[in-house]
Structures are given as C-alpha cells and as structure tokens.
Amino acid sequence: MKWSIQELSFLARDPLFLQETLDLEEALQARCQEVLAASAVEVTGMVLYEEETVLVQLQIALTITLPSSRSLQPVEVAMQFPMKERYLPLGVTQTFGDDDQTIVLDLEGDTVDLDQAIVDNILTRIPLKRLTPDELKATQLLSGEDWNLMTEATFATNKAHQQTGDPRLAKLQELFKDQTSEN
C-alpha cells in the first residue's frame, strides 16, 4: 500500500477506508532476525488527506512466531494494536489537534508507504517477555551449575539479607564506623 501525496489529495479528500490482508513476513524477517514466522497482517482503518497532510488511522492484527525469551523454543504471539500517524510533506509545519496517540512524521519524499510503516509498528511492539505454555505453567525457574534465574522479589529479598550481614560480626562494624567501605 503505497501512494503519492498527489494521488492521496484526490483519493482521500473524503476518508479512504481500507480493509486489506498483507503478506509482510519477508519484510519482518529481513528487519528482525528474531521473527521466525508471521501470519498475514489484517489491516482495517482509513486514510485521510487534510490540510496538506495525510492522517492514517489503522487497526493491525497478526500472529507472529518468535523464540521464547527463556528457552528459545518457538512461541506464537497474537498482536492487535491501533496505528495512528500523520505524515507531513516537506515544508508543512502546522500544529494539529491530534490526540496523544497520533505520531507526527515528516515524509522523506512524496510517497506514503504504509507497508513499511506497518512493519515499523509491528517491530516496535514485539514483546520482550515471550514464554511457551509450559514455561508459563512452571513454578520453579531454571537453574544450573553456579547460576539460577530468580524473580525480582526474590532478588530484593536476597539483597536485603546480604546487606544485614552476619550478626556475629556486628561488633566489628562499630570499630570501622568512621571509615566508609567501598563494598
């Protein structure tokens, strides 16, 4: 889905409603090595040319396969999100009453490439934590020789315990209370 500004000035004076299915798997994999697979991207919404700018409001839905953040096993992640962007051609410096969710972007040239914009939006919304169903059910975290995973709460508890120290050595601390420790 790619249009020139001139083309949109005729087509989208009234809202141009879209309902498309896009195959962006290759584009996603070319930009991000973590993407193992991607379903067809369902796009619904509208494009509107107003005041020499292009307003895009879309709803994006897809399923993307990524490696688990814990075991690297494939995990299917369903994604559905809104995309609100306003494109400003060179030389246009107007302010708009858009809501906080609308991103204002300067156009590099005279075309609006929604495929590329959709890929950008998908990649910025890839979750960092992705777990398989078995990993979600697991109550005990992974561990190995001289290492183990722990939750933030467990880490905070361990750190607090380390800071209190050994009570048998508390009297030694009084001897050095005038000096600061670098540890």
Written overview of the protein:
The chain is of the alpha+beta class and 183 residues long. The chain has two domains: 2-131, no CATH class; 136-178, no CATH class. Helices cover 27% and strands 34% of the residues. It is built from six helices and ten strands. The chain has helices at 5-11, 25-31, 114-124, 133-137, 152-164, 170-175, and strands at residues 2-4, 16-22, 37-38, 41-50, 53-67, 74-88, 103-106, 111-113, 143-144, 147-148. Strands 2, 3, 4, 5, 6 and 7 form a six-stranded mixed beta sheet that branches. Strands 1-8 form a two-stranded antiparallel ribbon. A two-stranded antiparallel sheet has the order 9-10. Strand 4 (41-50) and strand 5 form a beta hairpin. It is elongated, with a radius of gyration of 26 Å. The relative contact order is 0.15. The model has no long low-confidence stretch (mean pLDDT 82).
Number of domains: 2
- Helix percentage: 25-40%
Main beta sheet strand tally, sense and closure: 6 strands, mixed
Order of helices and strands: EHEHEEEEEEHHEEHH
The count of β-strands is 10
Give the integer mean of the pLDDT values. Answer: 82
- Which geometry do the CA atoms define? elongated
Number of helices: 6
Radius of gyration equals: 26 Å
Q: Look at the helices and sheets and give the structural class.
A: alpha+beta
Protein name: Nucleic acid-binding protein
Organism: Aerococcus christensenii
InterPro entries: YceD
Pfam families: YceD (PF02620)
